[in-house]
Give the backbone structure.
Amino acid sequence: MSKTTIETIKAAKNARKLVMITAYDALFARLIAPEADILLVGDSLSMSFGGYSDTLSVTMDEMIYHTKAVCRGAGDAFVVFDMPFGSCSTIDAALDNAIRVYRETNASAVKIEGGAEKAELVKTLSQNAIAVISHIGLTPQFARQSGGFKVQGKNDAAVKKLIGDAKALEEAGAFAIVLEGVKANAAKPIAQSVAIPVIGIGAGADCDGQVLVWSDLLGFFEAFKPKFAKRYMQGAALAKEAIAKFADEVRSGAFPSADESY
Ligand code: KIV
């Protein structure tokens, strides 16, 4: 995989599909980096690693710690830092927090949830040399306010609003957009409305790329399976089997054998 840059991401539009996968630590970043165009240190960390029921609990400090680990594991891969809940409540706070991300980690860009109402904020960051991926549609940081994780783009007015969001964010300087939880037939006109790549999650096949959370992709997250996720292996089942085998062998005395002894 050749080195990803903002230019190669933009050039992928209408040329090839982008692959984005979350990572939260060096171990998995090392496994994911060779296949992914973009590694996202998502605030989904809060749920899949932290055990919380939504993404609101993870802090800037925690995201920075995990992003440093991902950057160490990912080599020169393109790593995106997901600005956590509360970190972009004002333009000044967003700028300070994003500068901190660039100073303390090797992340190449930040991701910010929100539509046209965040355009001014995205513009300020872009003008201050911070690269931004926007995130529209189902925006988990708004889930408590909006009453849960709800599929978006269900009627013409909602699709029109999302197209307006996408255009405003492109105009503000976002170099890509994550589009989450949008009906497949609505995602297509949204993706086609902008010249920057629209990377989908639960937004059908017509986006310019796809992102999945690694613990969904590998079947480690068992609490629930979102409809849009596909488990490419049964990670939790395999891990439990291996752990049970180790426990059995310790109890029976089969581990350690001579092979594992000095
Ligand atoms: O936090 C995350 O993992 C995300 C993806 C679902 C896009 O924002």
In short: The chain has two domains: 6-231, 235-262.
